[in-house]
Amino acid sequence: MILDLDIGNTLTKWRLKCLKTSRILDRGSIWTRDRWEDSHEIPDFRDIKLMRVSNVGGKEVLGEVERIARRFRVPLHVARSLERFSGVRNAYREPSTLGVDRWLGILAGFHATGGCCVVDCGSAITIDFVLDSGQHLGGFIAPGIRLMKESLKLGTRNVPVDPDEDHQGLTTPGTTTHQAVSHGIYLAATGQINSAYAQVAKDLSGPLPLIVTGGDAVLVSGGLDVEPYCWPDMVYAGLELMFPVTTAEKSGILCGSPQGKFEKKLAVDRSSC
User: Fold this and answer.
1) Cα angle vertex 54, ends 81, 109, to 5°?
2) Residue 261 — pLDDT band, cuts 50, 70, 90?
3) Which residues, listed in sequence order, are joined to residue 89 by a DSSP beta bridge?
4) DSSP state at residue 91
5) Which pLDDT score, from 0 to 100, does residue 219 have?
6) How many CB atoms lie within 10 A of CB 163?
7) First and final CA of the chain: distance in angstroms?
8) How far is 19 from 171, CA to CA, in rounded Å?
9) Beta strands 76-78; 50-55: pairing state
10) Contacts 24+ apart (CB under 8 A), 85-93
11) Is the pLDDT of residue 163 over 70?
12) Is the pLDDT of residue 9 over 60?
């Protein structure tokens, strides 16, 4: 089996993929700062034949992954942000400083649709643009929904903020302080995406496909002006593109590539992989 790891600042998400059939066999997550060897939420490394990693959790976390890989003698492929790859040219003067999760999302998005806007709704909300030519234009980074909640809770007194509460996607004015906070944070999250997308589309004199991923993708999508595609496995797809192993991957078939409208909940059903 292949173990793919998407190590974020908050969560480490993993999935198991069949080496022969390219089907997704299992998936899960643990807190990035937890000790892996003490967790029951990770797969048995004795069954792993290959590991592919996207890491923005820091050197210490990656070091632990490398130690486990050596212990179980599992080949390890760690993604890096490059100047160019698979037709995409990195906009950063120092390409390695672009977050690798953003880079993998850009690669996957370009492979699937050509020019596009890629939005990752996680601990931070990142918005990146790439043209049909493969030129990455750069992007925007802002606090994610949970981070905005936690920041407001720390910086104010007597304001009812629950970082774990789900939003209802409402854009109407709140009639209680609690609602006002909740709706305001939601507007801040969706508004920055709508504004960035509208400005770039205006500069380009035309729209780009909008692809969303990350833990808050479904929530945020309900408040966007442009109907998006949803691709939960987008970072994993970037790993597939950088380190193709299965027959399907070597043929350019990435797991869960968007094929239709958001309402169809693309890439959620594992049978699509």
Assistant:
1) 65
2) very low
3) 84, 135
4) -
5) 87
6) 13
7) 15
8) 45
9) parallel
10) 85/242, 86/110, 86/111, 86/241, 86/242, 87/134, 88/130, 88/134, 88/136, 89/134, 89/135, 89/136, 90/136, 91/135, 91/136, 91/137, 91/138, 92/138
11) no
12) yes
pLDDT digits (tens, 9 = 90+) for 205-253: 889 999 999 988 988 988 899 999 999 999 999 999 999 999 999 999 9
**269: which 2 tokens?**
């059903």
Strand ranges, E, within 111-189: 116-121, 124-130, 136-143
How far, in Å, CA of 217 to CA of 180, rounded? 22
State the Cα–Cα distance between residues 38 and 199, nearest whole angstrom.
47
Q: Per mean pLDDT, which of 4-13, 100-109, 180-189, 213-222 is the most reliable?
A: 100-109
Helix (H, G, I), strand (E, B) or coil at 162: coil
Give pLDDT, residue 36.
65
> What contacts 24+ positions apart, CB below 8 Å, involve 170-173?
171/223
Could you list the active site residues? 101
